[in-house]
Structure formats: C-alpha cells, structure tokens
Specification:
It comes from Salinirubrum litoreum. By secondary structure, this protein is α/β, with parallel strands linked by helices. The protein contains 16 helices and 19 strands. A seven-stranded mixed sheet has the order 17-18-16-15-14-13-19, sandwiched between helices. It has a six-stranded parallel sheet with strand order 3-2-1-4-5-6, sandwiched between helices. Strands 9-8-7-10-11-12 form a six-stranded parallel sheet. β2, α2 and β3 form a beta-alpha-beta unit. It is elongated, with a radius of gyration of 27 Å.
Length: 489
C-alpha cells in the first residue's frame, strides 16, 4: 500500500486531496497550518494535523509519495527540501505555488522528482501519480534508480529492433530525471535496413558492447529492456546482477531483478516506457518520441497484432512530439544487396508442406536479412507460416513469420529449438538461435554438406513441431490442413 503525505492544503493541495479521496486512496496524511482546513478534512475522515508543512515532527515515520501543495512558493520550496532529506527514497511531487520566481523553480527542481507549474497544473495527472498500483510501480522504479552509484547501462536484446532501441532511450531519459546518467547499450549489430535507417536518421547515440569477461566494467548499474534475463539473447554473463527489467514478453524462466516490470498485456515495451514518462510528467524529446512511436507501430504491426488500449493511448501521447518526416523515411529505406541475395536463396531453397514453408540460405553476413526474407517468403501465394534460417559464425539464426494461422509461432519455435538453443517471439513473428556445436569447426570445403545437414535438421524440427501444434482433425482420415500435400521445391 502506498503511503502519501500532502504538505500544504492550498487551492491545488485541496484539489489533489479531493481527487485522492474520490479514488479511494488510503494511508493519506495531510499537514497544514490552517486549523479550519484541517478540521474540514477531518470531517471527511482524512488524517490531517495542524502544523507548518515545514515541521518534520508532524510527518509520519514512513512515506512513499510526498505531494507539496501550498499556495506559497517559499513554503513549498522549504517543505520539499525537508521532505527530501527526511524521506530520501520517496517520490516528491512539488507544486511551485502562485507567482513563483525562477529561484523557486530551480530550488524545487533540485530536490523534487516532478515540479508542477501553476500555469500547467492538471489535478488529474497529479492524482494519477499518487494512486493505485501504477503509483507504487513508479515509486519503486525511481527508488531503485536513485540507489545506483555510477553510470547505468540500459541493455537491449541482441541486434535490437526499434521497440528495444526506443525503450532503452526512454529509460535513460527517466534515469536522468533523478540524476543518474546512462547509456542505451546493445550486443551484436543493427543491420536490418529499417533499424539502421532509424538509428541514422535520428542520429542515435548507442553504445555497442563487446562480449567478454566483464562487458559492463564501466557501469554501476544494469537495466534490461524488451527482454528479461541476462545471458538469454544478449551478451551478458548469466550471473549479471540486474537492477531493472522492463519487458512486455512473457518470461520463459525466473526473472531476478531489484525492480521487474513484466506486463504482457500490452503490445510493445515502448508502451510501458511511455506510461512512465507520462506519469512522471516528462515530455519526450523529438528523437525519443519518434523512436517510441515507431517501436510501438512495429511491434503491434501498425496496431493490428496483440494491440491493447494502452498502445493507442501511448501513441496519442507521443504524436505531438514526433517527427513525421523521419517516420516516413524510416519506413521506406532502400534494400541492400545482401537482403536481395538472401531473399532469392530463401525462395529457391524453400521446402513446402501444405501452407508451411521452411528455407535454409546457408552462410550469411547479415542476420537481419533473414527477417526481411521471411517477410517476402510469407507474401508468396499459398504460404501462411514460414521459417528462414542461415549460418553466421558459429550460430544458426532463424526468423519466422505467420498470418491467419491457428498456431502461436513463438510457442512453436520455443518447443522446436529451446532444447538445443533459444527461441521466442510473438504469435506471428518469432526467431531462434541455435549453436552449431561440433559443426562449428567444419572445413570450408565441406560447407555445402554442412548447410544441407543444418537445413535438414532445422526444417525437420520445424515441420514436426508445427504439425503437433496444428488443430487435430475431426476425422482421423482427414489430412492436417497446414501440412497437407507434402512437397519439396
């Protein structure tokens, strides 16, 4: 339960209290110097005491959220400073008061998490900051961020997509709001043409980490976005101590972090970060807002896949801040020669069983070319589920796509490949990584044999698992509609 302390019951403070009472807030304590106001609050069953808002002896022992709401700027300035000293881990939201000076605003900004100017104040937003599970979540996140000594590494999954990139940028911005510097970090490459366009057009400052014994030696804290476990789809050691996890994917194993936020009812991790920005009153800059909106659009497939009301609300919040010209240019990048070559191989090497297709393209230089080849393979007539896989260094990477199918492709790939590698994703878009193992040191002259063996193994596992996920026919003599008319093309 969140404990709230209101210091000063001026016009704004009273409006905040009314909203909180209407919403059924409990553990609400008010300190105000005017006895008449205090008496009125007590008549409404609000715990209120007559004392100066700057008198710490009138405060409760523990507080999660402090709302400073007097009409006098000097009182608010002093009360906010005292509250910060008394409750260093609490979230402090301070109203400037009427006709504040620049010095008042600067002083409040130095101690409060959020400063509310008289001209911009919205009572609904203030009450939202202090009400329900969302308020508790915001408070706990800020508490963990404040406790980080040194720079924060916000780590995406390997070869990050727009949702992961944008989420990392947003969390860095939130950390900055409490005085913690941070970097958006990733392992691998950003090679998908649209992802590269996003980074280049927005001139994003991302840190590429190198795999090794201690890739985070320069950092004092670690956060994971758009994935939830170190060492699973990132280059971190599995024993890495994680401070923050924010992800919208259901975890496949236990998640160990000081602050985990795992909400799979939304379509994108970017949506969760927008929620934090909104509740903290942080207006995103053009770069972050544009990346967040693009991240939401990509992960929800332009609001047609696994989309929730919160995704639409997040997009509406971001629209005034985005650069529409950059979005247009990101969505129409040129296609590289690597993507064209990989797509051609995927079409030529495809094996089709009913409406399911799988294709091995052999050695590749750009793993994101697999995703683009899968998109184009799915566009072929008669295919509803496809998997394209290729070999990069000592790993087989696979990218799957599905449409209008009764199966969950993410679950299919997990069942097919989790025992020999790692896999996951959405119902209609998923991926997998499988180590080559003893095949990794094969002589280059035997590449063709290796590629044939890998394709047979990956395709076989995929087709077998899809078959087990497909709906059981009503008549035992009927043929599985997904895998009928087996053929190799």
């Amino acid at each position: 339960m969140v404990t709230r302390l209101v210091l000063g019951c001026g016009t704004v403070g009273h409006a905040i209290i009314d909203r909180l009472v209407e919403r059924g807030a409990r553990d609400l304590h008010v300190v105000d110097a005017h006895e008449r106001r205090v008496t009125a609050l007590r008549d409404e069953n609000v715990d209120a005491v007559t004392a100066e808002p700057t008198d710490p002896s009138a405060y409760p022992k523990t507080v999660d959220v402090v709302l400073v709401g007097d009409d006098d700027p000097a009182t608010n300035r002093a009360a906010a400073g005292i509250a910060r000293d008394r409750f260093p881990e609490a979230m402090v939201v301070a109203y400037t008061g009427i006709d504040p000076t620049d010095a008042d605003r600067d002083a409040l900004a130095s101690v409060a998490d959020r400063v509310l100017d008289h001209e911009r104040l919205l009572a609904d937003r203030v009450s939202a900051l202090a009400t329900g599970d969302d308020a508790d979540r915001v408070t706990r996140l800020l508490r963990v961020l404040r406790g980080i000594e040194g720079r924060l590494a916000v780590v995406t999954h390997d070869n990050p997509d727009p949702d992961a990139i944008a989420s990392a940028l947003a969390l860095v911005r939130i950390a900055q709001s409490v005085g913690v510097a941070g970097d958006a970090c990733y392992f691998g490459d950003i090679s998908h043409q649209e992802n590269r366009a996003l980074v280049n057009l927005l001139d994003l400052d991302l840190v590429q980490l190198e795999r090794g014994d201690d890739p985070l030696a320069a950092y004092g804290g670690v956060a994971l976005v758009d994935h939830s476990r170190p060492g699973v789809n990132d280059g971190l050691p599995e024993e890495t101590r994680v401070d923050v996890v924010i992800d919208h994917h259901p975890p496949r194993g236990p998640v160990d972090a000081r602050f985990p936020d795992l909400r799979h009812e939304v379509g994108a991790t970017s949506t969760l970060l927008v929620d934090y920005l909104d509740r903290l009153g942080i207006d995103p800059d053009r770069t972050t807002a544009t990346a967040l909106l693009y991240g939401i659009r990509v992960d929800t497939k332009d609001f047609t896949r696994e989309v929730s009301g919160r995704d639409f609300e997040a997009a509406a919040f971001l629209l005034p801040f985005v650069d529409p010209d950059v979005l247009d240019r990101v969505e129409t990048p040129s296609m590289s020669a690597e993507v064209l070559a990989t797509t051609a191989k995927a079409i030529r090497n495809r094996e089709v069983r009913g409406s399911v297709g799988a294709s091995g393209v052999g050695r590749i230089h750009d793993r994101d070319a697999l995703a683009q080849a899968a998109d184009r393979l799915l566009a072929m007539e008669g295919l509803d589920v496809v998997l394209v896989h290729g070999i990069l260094d000592d790993t087989v990477y696979a990218s799957g796509r599905a449409r209008g199918s009764a199966i969950d492709l993410g679950e299919v790939l997990r069942d097919a490949f989790d025992q020999i590698g790692s896999a996951g994703g959405h119902a209609d878009m998923a991926g997998a990584q499988i180590p080559l193992g003893i095949w990794a040191d094969v002589d280059e002259g035997l590449n063709e044999t290796l590629e044939t063996a890998v394709a047979a193994n990956i395709n076989g596992r995929f087709f077998e698992t899809v078959s087990s996920f497909a709906a059981v026919p009503a008549d035992d003599n009927e043929t599985d509609p997904l895998l009928s008319e087996s053929s190799s093309e």
